[in-house]
Amino acid sequence: MTTIEEIRSAGIAMKDILGLRGSPVGVRLLKTDAPVPGAVRAEGNRYCQALMRARHGEHVVVTGETIACPAAARAFGFKPLPEPLRTGKGLVGFGITAEEAVGAKMFEGMTVLEMGSVGQIDLFPLDLAEEIPDLVVVEDETEKLMWIALSYMHAHGGERVRGSTAVLQATCVDSTIIPYVERRLNYGLGCYGCRDATDMAAGEAVLGFPAEELPAIVAHLKHLGGRALPHSRGKHAYAALAKERKSAPGSCSEL
């Protein structure tokens, strides 16, 4: 997929087939902080908040000066990790862990970018793309993300899809940096920070994948949309079971 028109078309198709409540987001990790045409600086936003803005139609950039989350600032190589997070004391203070050693271990295991390797992060709705993204990040209900993971698995010959998470930094590390570094799809269940700071709903999660996977994913989503997806959502097997239980002699239970 090499043209902007194809990128936009893929974004529209993914949104329509799955019924996403927002747009898939294109992400570019840029080496410099030169102005990006059409983008506004996400002043005082966390990365997850900038991602939310892009999902709802905005074109924004995140820089080391504007990013509000210290954990994400380190993950993208903008700033060193603050001492309270590095030692785990901060996570104890937030009530996330009960022991500092556990918090420290969680951050030790994070996949992060080299300091100074990224100048800024460009985020935009995929269906309004003006540039080819490095990554695509999708946040929505877990059932909808399931179909993306299935399509990715189909593109890789049925190989199982691996997921890696610390249940921290779900949007910045799990769904952006790991897919960028390891060149594969990764998913997370959300985290304390993004659920507190954005409109991510209780039943939603997030995943990301390299943009070169987009054509094959969308092609199989179209295949799934022809039969498997609507059939599964129709819950035909469940309806048959409920009908059988309701008609069984002496049964008064409801499923």
UniProtKB/TrEMBL annotation:
Q: List the InterPro entries hit by this protein, alphabetically.
A: DUF169
Organism superkingdom: Archaea
Q: Name one Pfam family in it.
A: DUF169
Protein name, please? DUF169 domain-containing protein
What lineage does UniProt assign to this protein's organism? Archaea, Methanobacteriati, Methanobacteriota, Stenosarchaea group, Methanomicrobia
